[in-house]
Each structure stands twice: as structure tokens, then as C-alpha cells.
Amino acid sequence: MTTIPENAFQNLLEKSMTQLVQEKLELLLREEMSNYFTVEQPELRNSRNGHYKRTFETRFGTIRALRVPRDRKGLFQTRLFEPYHRRENWLEEAIIHMYKGGMSTREVAKFIESMYGAQYSPTTISNITATVMEDIEQWQKRPLEKRDSVIYLDGLYVKLRRDTVSSEAVYLAMGIDENGRRQILGFYVGGYESANGWREVLKDLKQRGATDVLVGVFDGLPGLEEAFREMYPKADVQHCVVHKVRATFPKIRTADKIEFLTDLKQVYTAVDGDVARAVFDGFKEKWKKQYPKEVKSWEDQLPTLLTFYKYPPLTWAAIYTSNPIERMNKELRKRLKPMNSLTNIEAAEKIIYLQATDYNDKWCGRAIRGFVDVDTKAAFEKMYRDRYEGQ
């Protein structure tokens, strides 16, 4: 009995699929040319002039001799692919998505070769992903909505290779607009996180149209509050309560942690701002002797830690913490971590841009719960009018 190799059927199937795809593509090309002669440009009195052959890579295999029709005047151009384009867009898209997922250009090249038999050098992969840079430039200059109820600011560090490998800052800005939609407003890569760096970020956001902001939410980086108030003097500042709790936690003795943090939680979960301040007074009296520095730190920062109470209750959960932007940063770290260090700033921008646009696509049709409530929208509208009308 003759044994047929297990992969013979697979090879036969792939060959049949490639042949079928070639036949269908050539049929579409002929029909497209006929339509061009008879419907689109009949006045040219053009005619066929044979065909030329070209290779064309598809997800079903490589077509070695695709017959592409020609016209006598050399005017016809198929819409199935760009001139001199040798493969379907799906491969470029697959490469870009793998790159976004944290694979290095070398790893992507090896994967493409193992899956499709096509050899792509890391340089070729890098050139394919480089097409994203044009999109990044346009995206970073796009106009922004005039009104943002909330702007979140947060930074992370990524290892970049210039002459040497060093950690550099990624500044990230996220907003919730007046319709309750959340999106990444911009990202900025390079240098070390500083108040001056954030001042440039905020200046860019305002120049691109984000002029009317109600509240900025961020951590206690020295100088950031001043930079924000300088650019948005009519906006409120909300220091992230979760950041403050995390900073306080290690300074409390193990035996006191549960009780201390339970008492503290009563402050930022009170029914309103007046009750919150009254609860803090009790908290202060109870703990100031054991933890004078920690209690004093909370007391000094209390006005900006309790800002969220000025806003409609349904939005408190979204305003009192910068968790939404921190979750985005966590996702970015996960994507960037497998790469150890990136070859240049453009490599970092590609990955962050692809992640940011994915995020915006995900949230573009959604409104944050609580921000679309009728009473909430009316309260926000009054805030916008009181602060910015007549500017």
C-alpha cells in the first residue's frame, strides 16, 4: 500500500486555493477594465493591449504569474492594488499588529518567514511599520474638542537607545469631553518627566483647541499643579486620591494599617464635601500624635484631594482618581516590556500611537456612565458657561 505524505494534501490544497484566487483576481481585473472602457472613460476610445505578468502575495499563497491587463494608452490602473504593490494590505496590517503587540522586528521577520515562506529582513519590517509615522504626525496635530470636562495626566518611562540605553518619559494626556466620551488626547516621548515637560504638553493641547477644561486629574509631581493652573487658570485641580493612599500606606505600622486606612477611607467616601471635611477632623484628632507627618500631609493637600465633591455625584468615581489613564499606561508597559530597549524614539512612538488609536476606537462610541445623566449634563453646562462664556 502506497503511503501518501501527510503534508501532500496540505500542499495540494494550498496550490488549489492559490490557483482559484488567481482565476478570480484575473476575472475581476478583466471586468474592471471593461467597465473602465465602457462606463468610466468611453470618450477616450481606448482598447486592450494584452497583459503583463507579476508576482502577487496573498494570504492563500504566492501567485507567480498574475496576468494584469494593459490598455493601449497606458491610462488604466486597477483599484485592486497600488502600482508596483506586490502583496495584499493584510500582510502589512498583520505586521503592524504584531509589532504593536510587542514583537521585535526580528521576531516578526522570523514569524512571517515560518508562516508564509516569505523572507523579510528586520529592516524591511521596520520600513513597513515606518508608514505609521506619517499617520502619527497627522494624529498628533489633529484638532481637539473645545470642551473637556476632565483631563487626566500621567507619565511612564520607556527604555530608549540613543548613544546609550536610558529611560525616558512618555507624557500621556486623556480627556472626557462634554458628551462623556473618553479618548487619548496626545502623547509625547522624550526626556525626563518634569513640570516644564508637562507645561509644553498642556500648551500643545490648548493650541490644538482644548481650551475649556473643568478639572485636571493627576498625581502630586512637584510643579505639575502650577503648570496646569498656569495653562488652565479657570479649571480645578484634583490630586489622585489613590496615589495619595498608596504613598501613605508604607509609612503606617503593620498593626495600624487596617484601622488607619479604614478611617481614612471614610473621608473620601463621605456623602458630600462638608461631611468629608468633618470626618477628616475626627481622623486628624485620632491619628495626629502617632503619625503627625502623614496626617499633616493629608491636611495640606485636602482641598485638591476633595475637589471631586464640587461635581455631580455620578461623576465622582471618574474624577477622584487617575485610574483610567493608569490602566492605559499599564497596557503600554505590557506592550513595551518584551522589547527591553527600543532602537529609537520613532519605535516607541509607533507602538504608543497604535495602542492609543486602538483605545480611542474602542471608546469613541461610548459615553462614560454618569456623564450623560440629564442633571449631570445640565450642571456641567452651567460650569462651562460660568467659567468660559464671554472669553
UniProtKB/TrEMBL annotation:
UniProt keyword list: DNA recombination, DNA-binding, Transposable element, Transposition
Top-level taxon of origin: Bacteria
Record carries keyword Phosphoprotein: no
Coiled coil: none
InterPro entries to which the protein is assigned, alphabetical: Transposase_mutator (IPR001207)
Pfam families from the UniProt entry: Transposase_mut
Membrane-spanning intervals of the chain: none
Matches recorded under NCBIfam families: transpos_IS256
Family from the record: Belongs to the transposase mutator family.
Biological role stated in the UniProt entry: Required for the transposition of the insertion element.
Protein known as: Mutator family transposase
Organism: Cohnella hashimotonis
High-level lineage: Bacteria, Bacillati, Bacillota, Bacilli, Bacillales
